[in-house]
Design goal:
The chain is an alpha+beta fold and 307 residues long. It has a single domain, classed as Beta-lactamase (3-Layer(aba) Sandwich), CATH 3.40.710. It contains 12 helices and 7 strands. A 5-stranded antiparallel β-sheet has the order 2-1-7-6-5. The chain has a two-stranded antiparallel sheet with strand order 3-4. The radius of gyration is 19 Å and the shape is globular. It starts with a helix and ends with a helix. The model has no long low-confidence stretch (mean pLDDT 96).
């Protein structure tokens, strides 16, 4: 069965999704690719943390970033959205290496923004991707800025509020809290806030993972550390969900809103054979569980093809 047969099988899965989905699959050994909307830009959401991870190790190699540097967790570092550092006591001083691990394995947004600060901001990551020949990967804002822009697009009363002020306003104003949870409002806010910013194509994200597997984006030691970090991912309900037990899979998910954006991307190893996969979505109106199942079926289809 050729790659075209796999593309048709994936297209059948994608065609049943109530939303827009793009997929890229790249055989790392042969370079052969297939795709569905593979060259369209999609919101990366937390998939942006893989380019950040790569650039952090590139900087460590060059000597411009110390992974052993300690960074203080404080009231000011708290960031909207996923993660655990928001709930840790102030004064904790994890290393940059610790921040990177939290950024990937539990998708910690506060950790991500702290790593971005050490790298010089989103533009530095975008430039690194350009240097790697991946110009369709654009990181334009911190995670805090991205989520703040989404909230502001939903309701202007949230403009310029920090983590604590927004949490307080949500508690005090039940109408606002309901509006921020409303699926239609969330979709509109995400559409407005992500148009042309913080996007990537499935093809370029798959190619980034292929570069990791081939030690092309950094040294072999750094790429091995990048892979090890990605393999520790604890959010496994999408691409790897229907894979056989103990299948090696190094990946990073991404989500925005109530299932409006559901992404997953990574390296699937069939034996020692690495396959890069990127699945992105936008404007999704079905329940997240249904989208997760579709993505899991894509992962299973790729595995069965190469196995």
């Amino acid at each position: 069965m050729g790659m075209e047969a796999l593309r048709r099988r994936i297209a059948g899965i994608v065609g049943r999704v109530e939303g827009i989905m793009g997929v890229a699959v790249r055989d790392v050994e042969t370079g052969e690719e297939i795709g569905i909307r593979a060259d369209e830009p999609f919101p990366m959401a937390s998939v942006c943390k893989t380019p950040i991870l790569v650039e952090a190790y590139r900087r460590a190699e060059s000597g411009t970033l110390s992974l052993d540097k300690r960074v203080e967790i404080s009231r000011a570092t708290r960031t909207f959205g996923s993660g655990l550092f928001n709930f840790f006591d102030e004064g904790l001083t994890p290393t940059v290496r610790d921040l990177i691990l939290m950024m990937i394995v539990v998708s910690d947004n506060a950790a991500t923004d702290l790593v971005l600060k050490e790298l010089g901001g989103p533009a530095a990551v975008t430039e690194a991707m350009r240097q790697l020949g991946l110009p369709a990967i654009h990181l334009d804002r911190t995670i805090r800025q991205l989520l703040a822009d989404i909230y502001a697009a939903i309701d202007s009363r949230t403009c310029d509020l920090d983590y604590f002020a927004l949490e307080a306003l949500r508690t005090e104003d039940s109408e606002l809290a309901a509006k921020l949870r409303d699926p239609e409002a969330a979709r509109a806010g995400i559409r407005a806030a992500t148009q042309g910013r913080d996007t990537a194509t499935p093809r370029d994200i798959a190619r980034l993972y292929a570069q990791i597997a081939r030690n092309e984006c950094a040294s072999p030691d750094s790429c091995a550390a990048i892979l090890q970090t990605l393999e520790r991912q604890q959010l496994k309900g999408r691409l790897p969900r229907e894979l056989p037990p103990y299948t090696r899979f190094a990946h990073k998910t991404g989500s925005l809103g109530p299932g409006t954006v559901c992404n997953d991307s990574g390296l699937l190893f069939v034996g020692d054979h690495p396959i890069a996969i990127a699945v992105f979505s936008r404007e999704v109106v079905q329940p997240p569980a249904a989208t997760n199942t579709a993505i899991a079926r894509i992962g299973r289809a790729v595995y069965e093809h190469f196995a």
